[in-house]
User: Fold Sodium:proline symporter from Kocuria flava.
Amino acid sequence: MPPAQLEPPFGLIVTTGLLVLFFGGTFLMSTRIGRRKENADSYMTAGHGIGFGVSAASMTATWIWASSMYASVTSGYTYGVSGPIHYGLWGALMILFIYPFGRRIRAVAPHAHTLAEVMHARHGRSSQLMLAGSNVVGSVISLMSNFIAGGALIAMLSPFGFVQGVVIIAAGVLLYTLWSGFRASVLTDFAQVVAMLGAVVVLVPALFLVLGGPALFTEGAVNVTPQQADFFSSEAFLEQGAPYIAAVLAYAIGNQTIAQRLFAVREDLIRPTFVTATIGYGATVIGMGMIGVLALYAGIDPAGGETNNLLPQVAASYLPGVLLAVFFVMIIGSLSSTADSDLSALSSIVMTDVYGQSLRGRGRRVDPRTMLLVGRLTMVVATAVAVVFASLRLDILDLLVFVGALWGALVFPVIASFYWGRVTNRAFTVSVLAALAVFLPVRFGAVPDAGLLPLLVEVLAVVGVGVVLGLMVFGFTGLRPALAIGAVAALAAAPFVLGFLRDYEALTGSLVAYAVSTLVCWAMSVRSGQDFDFAEIRRRTGDFTDPGAGDDDDASLAAARAER
Assistant:
């Protein structure tokens, strides 16, 4: 067992040198791709023409947060051998499951910048603001969690403190992202994901051998509970796997960082991009999660009782100097790849959904230079806000599950809006608000344990099971198989959910959010007389540097509103 208080393995000079090497290198890359006259559309989507290698690497790097690595290690340590599987496998499969939805979204809105922009073209202002607002909240929380991971890493391995580490990471990411926006994000992602995959191949086997090799699993068995030793642990599935299945589906649909890459990649390369990202994410995150399993068998206690410290603690205690430096750069690279994606996503939302749409709504043209300034100022403000909130040091795994569940309220209304012409703006808005109103008290334990109310919540959770599995099937096979699978899944789950699931608030809250938004959205849309023409979305969205784009936006939206 390592000492409770570790001596920092890196001195001031080594730490500074590694940080300068990483952030200096990424900054030089961003300056080489920078343009004297930056284009607002390229700043947000790189011209919608990114090739396979860069797009696949960027999708993988964005999906692999440093938070994901920390959370996967925590999952392995908490739930044993099945923990990393329940964290990494479902996350990987969700990338694959959203691929057909991605093709549909890109087909109806080939030149859009954000999903919220598409919702504006599909429904109107309130739906757009709802999606944009949820993305702002989610991206700031994501940014904050990556800064927390960076602060914990630097505080553990160097003489710098936690807050100093947070500020260093924030300043470094902002440095290279500010100038070239999304293009800097995707190109540095390529280098970062190559480094991450290479490091995982080296570090995990090295730690396995240092901690005892195969003998660790026999000698360390006394440190493991029966549930932690069970590959099919029900505890791991109910507390980690099932909530994560629901959460990552919502992440994939509601997260602007994924949508931004969807709008940036060449349309014919969407499928190979998603398949490659599925494999890359699964291999990396599950592999890193095994470090948590090794720590569990080795009887290692997290320093200070904080599981966020476990990954850097294990690395600092057992890796030799060179490999520890590789580990340090790998984690900095993974958190930077997601943090720069969050900054790019936030800037795109404010540029498109706040500044761009406000001018178009008043019949005025967008000034590209002002739009770029708005995007860069957004990055600065978002970084400052995330640094302030990062000082709260919240649990990373809880943050990820909470945000995913919050976005669960949006999944059905968003997907239905791309396939079903009857979905109205009012149905979208009311269904999301209703789902949030039910989700929050369920998630935070405000529902009584006895009486009819918890039973009603569990009935909604049963519906939620059917909705999640039905949506997964719908993208690949269409409506009828999805309805059949959803109904069978709900009926099969009912005996195991009713009277039982109320003790698992994270999972119940996620499922209830899916169920309520689906039921309300369907009930309000099924009798509507609207039959939306999806070709209108292509006409109402477009590049801001295209002189003809958006000219008919006001007239067409006014007509749509008049019909409603």
Summary: Residues 395-542 form one domain. Residues 321-361 form the longest helix (41 residues). Residues 63 and 281 are 7 Å apart (CA to CA). DSSP finds 25 helices and no strands in the chain.
